[in-house]
Automatic annotation (TrEMBL):
Signal peptide: none annotated. InterPro entries: Thioredoxin-like_sf, Thioredoxin_CS, Thioredoxin_domain, Thioredoxin_H-type-like. It comes from the Eukaryota. It comes from Triticum aestivum (Wheat). Keywords: Disulfide bond, Electron transport, Redox-active center, Transport. One of its GO terms (molecular function) is oxidoreductase activity, acting on a sulfur group of donors, disulfide as acceptor. The keyword Electron transport applies. Gene3D superfamilies: Glutaredoxin. This is Phloem sap 13 kDa protein 1. Belongs to the thioredoxin family. Plant H-type subfamily. Residues 1-124 form the Thioredoxin domain. PANTHER family: THIOREDOXIN, THIOREDOXIN H5.
Amino acid sequence: MAASAATATAAAVGAGEVISVHTLEQWTMQIEEANAAKKLVVVDFTASWCGPCRIMAPVFADLAKKFPNAVFLKVDVDELKPIAEQFSVEAMPTFLFIKEGDVKDRVVGAIKEELTNKVGLHAAAQ
């Protein structure tokens, strides 16, 4: 009984929150867990020096709260260049929508309405 409660608690970790990814190992773990659970992953490719990224950060955090069944990841492109390169990220912010390892959609730029609409669209399709 205690093990199942611990598992349920572990599954809820990160739900409704933005998870900052700082290592390739963290990235792999988050993607594998989301794929196993067939969850939508929304990735915010950002940079500390990017003004529009800072504007979008609270919008992204609000979406994470509104859609707790999706996984919201934040990746600093300067910190994890290989991941940004893997997904051909050339502008910040870039938001990717990944489901079971496949990129389903992307939003490039600080476009609040488009990001909100696409999160709603892809989260509903889960």
